[in-house]
Structures are given as C-alpha cells and as structure tokens.
Specification:
heterodimer, A: alpha/beta, Pyruvate-ferredoxin Oxidoreductase, domain 3, 7 helices, globular, B: alpha/beta, Rossmann fold, 6-stranded mixed β-sheet, 20 helices
C-alpha cells in the first residue's frame, strides 16, 4: 500500500508541522517514507509545497509523479489548485477555504471555489474558524490534519493522535490537548 | 542495530561525518547546504568531542580552515552551495595538489532549477577539473554511508573527496539506519609527504604527475566501487546510465524492475570500463543525470560511434532544470499518467520581503530620494533577502550577480560616468566578500554610496550568525573610510525624513560614503522574543 501526499501553502503558514506529525506516525508504524521540503528563498511568502510519500514498500523517487498524488492537503485554496495536475483521478483535495492574499492579482474567490467544485473529491473547510470554535485558535494546522485523517487510509486516526503527542509532548500537556482537540474537530467536520 | 532516524540528505551527510570521527565543520550558509552545518552544531557529539562548528566568513576561508585541519591529521568537512565552490576554487584546486592528510570532504550542494540560486552549475565538473573523486549519493542512506566511506577513501588515497548533492537530495527526508560503530577522532599527526604542502613549482611539478596517476587509479576504484553497479535486464534494445538521484526517477517508473540494463553511477571519475561493458550489450544508451550533461558529453565525444547516445543534449531529456520522475518517464517513451488539467485561475506567488522587514523601509527611503531627484542613479545590489527589492512595489535595484559584486560594480560604473552609483548589500555579504571591495573604493577614492542593510544575521538561509555583527562601522573605519561619511540609520517608517536626508547628503559628497542601515531581521527578532 502507498499514499502520496502533496502538502501546499504559503511560506510561513507552517505546512511542515503537518508533515512532521504524519512522518512521526509513519516511522512508528515502520512504513517507508520520503518527504521533500522547500527551504531557502522560496520560503519568503511564496508558494511552498512538500511531497510526502508513505508506503509499505521501498520508495524510489523523492518527488511524486504527475497524476499520482492520492491527496493534496492545502492551507490555502488557490495553492491547492496549483497542484491539481499531480492529483490522481481518484485522489482527494483537503483544503482550507480562507485565502492568504499577499499578491495584488489574487483571483476572485468565487472562481477559486468554482474550480475546486469541478473536482470530484474535495473536502473544503474553514480551518481557523473550526480551531477557534473548539478553543484551539493556534492549532489550525491540526484541524486540517484531522480532516486529512478522514481519507488517509494508510494511517489510523489514533496513530496520528500518538504522533501529535510525540511531536508536541515537550511543549506540555495543555498544548498537546489543544492540538488533539483541533485534530478531532477537523476529523468530525470532514465526516459531515 | 542503531536506531532508525528520519533525516534530510544534508543531515545524513552531517551524521555520517560525525560518526566518521569529524573534528571540524567549516562552512558559510547557502541553500541547499545550510542544514549540514546546522545539524552538526546541534548534535551532542559535537559538544562532547569539541568539534569546530563556527560559521566562517566565506567559502574560501572555510576551505582553507578545513585544509589546515587536514594538514594537522584530523578529519574536516567543508559545506557550501554550488556557487560557493567558485569562491573557494583557489584553495579547492590547491587541495588536490597538497592532497589530504586527515580525511577531507567537500560537500557541494547544487541547485538545478535555481530554487534559491543564480545559476545551475554542476559541481561534478570540479572533480574533472581538479582531478578529485566525486561521490554523488542517490538516497539518504547512501548519503550517510558514502560520507563515512569518503573519509576513509580520502585518507587512503591522500586526496580530498567532493560530495555532490542536489536540492532534492539535500532537502528530502527519509529513514536512515546509522552504523553502530562511531569512529574515534584522529590524533594530531603531520603529513608523510611534507613537500606536497609547499606548492613551489619544484614540488608542484612532481605532485602534478602523481596526481595524474592517482586520478587514473580513482577511475579504476570507481569501476569496482560498491556505489556503482551494472545490472542486466531482459530487454537489450537500449541501456541506461543513471547518475546520483536520477537513478530513483528511473526506478520510480519501473516498480517491478527496469527491463533494460542499467549502469548506476554514484562515484566518479566516471567508470569508463563499466560503460564499455554496457555498450557491448546495447545499441543505444540513455543518459540520465541531474545537472549539466557531464557524462553525456564525455560519452558522445567528437567522432561518430556505433553506439547512439541520447540524453539532455538532443532533448530526449529536458535540457535544463531539475529532473523529475515525469521528465524521465517521457525520456523512456512511457505514456503520461492520466490526471486533471491545470487550473486556469492561478496567479503566481513569488517570494517577497516579509512585512515589517527593515529592507522594505530602506528601499522605500532610497526610492523616495533617487526616483524623485536622481533619475540617472543606478543601484548595484547583491545576494541576500534584499535582492527581493527587485520585485514590485520596490523595483529598486538594477543588478545582482554574485556575493560582493555590488560594491565593486558600483565603482566600475562610477568611474565610467554613472552618478549616483549606489551599492547595496547585507551585513553577512559585506563580511563575506564586500570588505575587499570597500578597500578598493577607499584606495581609488571612488564617488560611490555604499549601503550595508544590516539585519544582524544571515537571513535568507534562516538566520545564522553573521561574521561582523556589532563591528560593521569599525570595520569600515579600519578599511580607511572617513568616519564623517560612515552614517548609521534605523530603517523605520517614522525615520524616513532622517534616512532620506542622510542618503541625499552622502550622494552629494563626492567620495566614498558608507550608509549602515540597521534593524534586526524580524524573523530572528520574533524568535528572540519567544525565548
């Protein structure tokens, strides 16, 4: 079994915290894993992505081929669309719906949402609002991870919760719980 | 078996070096190489073993420091991005002539597709040029294993080894299983061949002939290396040579095994003997390599051959840029996978200066002066975050070439009649390669305004220490700039009137002016505030 994930967002949004939790859970499960990240100039407010590949068999390429991504997980709706040519025909998009506007020519939101609507399997949620609702305003990324868990077949939600505990453990129990709450809220919203 | 670890390719090189008994890392930050040194700086073995881990002023001083450590018999690592190899070319080429005493590994991280760079030069050429072996890992485990092997190889053969990574190898994580054995560090011991280390012609001529012979031996070693392999396949209609990470993209396209014979190359000089064996099996050879067509050119030669060579030169493989599994798939003649059409509503999102960044306020004030009153001005900039001043809404700079070129190009243009001629660089670039140019300006009494946009760090690569922090004005005065024309300003919107006044005054002064524009990088300031 394999699962290829493109994590997308804008430099500074923190897509790597999502990758870190999934990575930790995958490592614990003895899965093979490759995770290509973006460092350097491109991080400065530009579009960023990370290719995360999980598999029960050895993985060759660090990059996901076009048409092979099982999931596109994005903290920003237009950034989700940027990687659509990488999505497999049966693949899922899990995206935040709130735009990050730091460019003058950001397209109208209606057209961004219309493009997303054209695709067959999309989970679109407002991650910041959900995080605030459950009292974890700083854990919006974990809301998105929770929504991802609804369709991430290769790792059970419980394994991801364990991952959150491992990654945030040294920051204290309160922060762990806030992140778990956000994760659960994301998972519940995706199942709606 | 030691614990499995999830490591970037950069970190695998770092851990391999530490486990090989490293005594010092010498490096200047540069994407995608920075994380090698940062990993070593954060590792407990570094403190336990007193491994030298300070950032150096530039790649040349790094290479020289490491060569001195090698002379003293200890194992040293030099790390840099590909263009850093140009900066350290002199000691690098010299190190092949002196040879290595303690193991010496030079990690060069190339950036094909120029994610964060000004060109896509291929560091494997330095191996051919300087007659040094090059190791090019294809995965993170190999990066660890090969770094350890490179130290032994360097000492056995008395030669530095170049470890070549590309962006994707450097910045991708995978599981690495380190060796159980952590090798002790070397004791201080001096070279067996002291004459080599004094490269007077009388000694260098002798060494040059030895080096030519050694390079031939290195090629024989490469043909036998466990990192290079020739694997047969059932279909002999073509053969494939896959170098470094290109091997992964090849195998990605054949999950059940490649049907063609494959020569995997991760250790150079290129093992011609293995290529001849492959050529005896097939009529056509496809060359897959990340970077420039080094191997392909070597195979093509000049005269016609019975073997057809295809690759980047004939556009079977995309001619430039980073390779991808899709590029390789196309080159193999396999159909593209079905997918969705690209979205039509996308807007590009280029990198930009952070909101609140001091460089923004500096460029705003500079533009307010130049665009209004000095329309003939030219601004020569440099390598760093502030290069983003080229982008809208600033459109503030006219050139960016390489580390330090701002201060020196401004002088050449000023002498040619450009006025005002303004140079702009950052504090870390100033101490890397700007100080010597400033000395030139003082000696020539050039009519230039040289600005140091000082954010107290090496920001673009993530906030490493900057070599001259706290001493910028003293350095300028020491180099001979008239203290009356070393002006310091604080880039904030409320200070625009003062900043503009200083800029105007120094433009009107017809000599060397230095304007130090200082405010901490907001990224490092945020981190300091959290602590």
């Amino acid at each position: 079994m394999k699962q290829d994930i493109i994590l997308a967002g804008v430099g500074g949004q923190g897509i790597l915290s999502i990758a870190t939790v999934i990575g930790s859970a995958a490592l614990e499960q003895g899965l093979h894993l490759k995770q290509a990240e973006v460092h350097g100039m491109s991080q400065r407010g530009g579009d960023v992505q990370s290719n995360l590949r999980l598999s029960s068999d050895p993985i060759h390429s660090d990059l996901i081929p076009r048409g092979a991504a099982d999931l596109i997980v994005s903290l920003e709706p237009m950034e989700a669309l940027r990687y659509v040519p990488y999505l497999a025909p049966q693949g899922w998009i899990i995206t935040n719906t709130v735009p990050f506007v730091n460019i003058p020519d950001y397209p109208p939101m209606e057209s961004v949402m219309a493009e997303l609507d054209k695709l067959p399997r999309v989970i679109a949620i407002e991650v910041d609002a959900i995080a605030k609702e459950v009292g974890s305003p700083r854990s919006a990324n974990m809301v998105l991870l929770g929504a991802t868990a609804a369709v991430l077949g290769i790792l059970e939600p419980d394994k991801l919760r364990d991952g959150i505990r491992r990654i945030f453990g040294r920051k204290g129990e309160e922060i762990v719980e806030a992140n778990i709450k956000a994760f659960d809220a994301g998972l519940a919203s995706a199942k709606k | 078996m030691a614990d499995k670890q999830l490591l970037l390719g950069d970190e695998a090189v770092a851990l391999g070096a530490l486990h090989a008994g490293l005594s010092g890392v010498y490096a200047y930050p540069g994407t995608p190489s920075t994380e090698i040194t940062e990993y070593i700086q954060g590792h407990p073995l570094t403190r336990e073993r007193h491994v030298h881990d300070h950032w150096t002023a530039n790649e040349k001083t790094a290479m020289e420091g490491a060569l001195g450590m090698s002379y003293a018999g200890k194992r040293a690592l030099v790390c840099m991005k590909h263009v850093g190899m140009n900066v350290c070319a002199d000691p690098l080429m010299g190190s092949a002539m002196t040879g290595a005493n303690g193991g010496l590994v030079v990690a060069a991280c190339d950036d094909p597709s120029m994610h964060s760079s000004q060109n896509e030069q291929d560091s494997r050429f330095w191996g051919t040029f300087g007659m040094m072996p090059v190791f090019e890992p294809s995965n993170q485990q190999e990066a660890y294993d090969m770094t350890r092997a490179a130290y032994d190889y360097s000492e056995e053969n008395g030669i530095p080894v170049i470890m070549r990574l590309t962006t994707r190898m450097a910045h991708s994580r995978a599981v690495v299983t380190p060796d159980d054995e952590i090798r002790p560090q070397n004791e201080l011991h001096y070279p067996e061949h002291p004459k080599r280390w004094v490269t007077l012609p009388v000694n260098a001529r002798v060494r040059n002939r030895e080096l030519i012979k050694l390079y031939a031996k290195c090629e024989e070693d490469a043909a036998k290396s466990r990192f290079n392999s020739l694997t047969d396949g059932p279909d002999h209609s073509k053969g494939i040579i896959a170098c470094g990470i290109a091997y992964n993209y090849l195998m990605e396209n054949y999950p059940d095994g490649c049907p063609y014979p494959v020569l995997k190359v991760s250790q150079y000089p290129f093992p011609r003997e293995l290529a001849l064996t492959l050529a005896a099996m097939v009529p056509t050879i496809l060359v897959l390599e990340e970077g420039q067509p080094l191997v392909e050119n070597q195979l093509r030669g000049v005269f016609p051959s019975k073997i057809k060579i295809v690759g980047r030169i004939d556009n079977t493989v995309v001619r430039d840029g980073e390779l991808s599994p899709d590029d390789v798939r196309k080159a193999l003649g396999l159909p593209a996978l079905p997918t969705f059409a690209p979205s039509q509503v996308l807007a590009p999102r280029p990198p930009a200066l952070c909101m609140g960044c001091g460089h923004r306020d500096f460029y705003t004030a500079l533009n307010n002066v130049l665009k209004k009153d000095y329309p003939t001005a030219r601004v020569f900039s440099d390598i760093g975050c502030y290069t983003l001043g080229y982008m809208a809404p600033f459109n503030a700079i006219h050139t960016c070439v390489e580390m330090g070129a701002s201060f020196t190009m401004a002088q050449g243009a000023a002498y040619s009649g450009t006025w005002p001629a303004v140079g702009v660089l950052g504090d870390s670039t100033f101490t890397h390669s700007g100080m010597t140019g400033l000395l030139d300006a003082v000696n020539a009494d050039a009519d230039v305004v040289l600005c140091i946009s000082d954010n107290l760090t090496t920001a673009m690569t993530g906030g490493q220490d900057s070599a001259g922090t706290g001493r910028i004005e003293a350095i300028c005065a020491g180099l001979g700039v008239d203290p009356a024309h070393i002006r310091t300003i604080v880039p904030l919107p409320k200070n625009y009137p003062d900043m503009e006044k200083v800029i105007r005054e120094e433009i009107e002064y017809h000599g060397v002016s230095v304007i130090v524009c200082r405010r901490e990088c907001i990224q490092t300031a945020r981190r300091h505030a959290k602590k």
